[in-house]
């Protein structure tokens, strides 16, 4: 099977506060990694397989800024170079494990999967709300036992909210309202918008904003393949629109961020965050939005885990039927396939 992973890309490996002094294992795009913070606080990622007999370094121990393999004691520094082997003075030249470029930004730790020389931090897409004091964020990560493409499909078509997430974020208007889709092929960004002028307010927003009646609800998706998905959500009492100068004091803004990080060909790290610009100090609203969004994510996880099993069990050649709501998802598949086939070229 040809790998569906897009290489030479930045992926969210973890939230910054998941990585501390303890060794921490996470697999990204099929590559097992071990993370830790060096004594100066710098986050480090190394291949999580000892070069000697593959023992996972994540199940070994730290000694200062080195990792001592738990099997026979090969010892690695933060660059992955072996600085000690047992029973001999000479350290083989090839005694090293790969180290991975990391960047901490917007509360995430991004890891570069691909050729080290191509790792350009300027290519990392931004989610500034997650580290902005003007917003309050709740977040989590759920393991998904399904290929990442299924999560991309899911997030680019929110009409499923009506059917899968009724009682949380779904109302009839989501499925009823047509979408507009724009694809910036050059930048490889996909935009899908659904703007509901007069819609029921789902519990997710009624409870958090306190709006009692019907709402104007905008869902503006911006997908930056492969990893970062943004849903700019605007909620206001029905008929309340932004001012001509772009200010928007009558609305509530929620930035829903997903990082879609493939773990293996058939499993995915589903990072989710919900940032809001209202009720900033309200712990009850935070608790409610956290629990509600996690419940929604788990509904998606349950559905996609079923789909993964269905796909794994079927004979090839199944013909899906696509309709208007799938325009964004189909564009995403096209761009991901293109990216997987031709990773970025070396900068001139
Ligand atoms: S497997 Fe690590 S030292 Fe042997
Ligand atoms: Fe969903």
UniProtKB/TrEMBL annotation:
<dbReference type="InterPro" id="IPR017941">
    <property type="entry name" value="Rieske_2Fe-2S"/>
</dbReference>
<dbReference type="GO" id="GO:0016705">
    <property type="term" value="F:oxidoreductase activity, acting on paired donors, with incorporation or reduction of molecular oxygen"/>
</dbReference>
<keyword id="KW-0001">2Fe-2S</keyword>
<dbReference type="GO" id="GO:0051537">
    <property type="term" value="F:2 iron, 2 sulfur cluster binding"/>
</dbReference>
<dbReference type="GO" id="GO:0046872">
    <property type="term" value="F:metal ion binding"/>
</dbReference>
<dbReference type="InterPro" id="IPR050584">
    <property type="entry name" value="Cholesterol_7-desaturase"/>
</dbReference>
<keyword id="KW-0408">Iron</keyword>
<dbReference type="Pfam" id="PF19112">
    <property type="entry name" value="VanA_C"/>
</dbReference>
<keyword id="KW-0479">Metal-binding</keyword>
<dbReference type="GO" id="GO:0004497">
    <property type="term" value="F:monooxygenase activity"/>
</dbReference>
<protein>
    <submittedName>
        <fullName>Vanillate monooxygenase</fullName>
    </submittedName>
</protein>
<dbReference type="InterPro" id="IPR036922">
    <property type="entry name" value="Rieske_2Fe-2S_sf"/>
</dbReference>
<dbReference type="InterPro" id="IPR044043">
    <property type="entry name" value="VanA_C_cat"/>
</dbReference>
<keyword id="KW-0411">Iron-sulfur</keyword>
<feature type="domain" description="Rieske">
    <location>
        <begin position="10"/>
        <end position="111"/>
    </location>
</feature>
<dbReference type="Pfam" id="PF00355">
    <property type="entry name" value="Rieske"/>
</dbReference>
<keyword id="KW-0560">Oxidoreductase</keyword>
<keyword id="KW-0503">Monooxygenase</keyword>
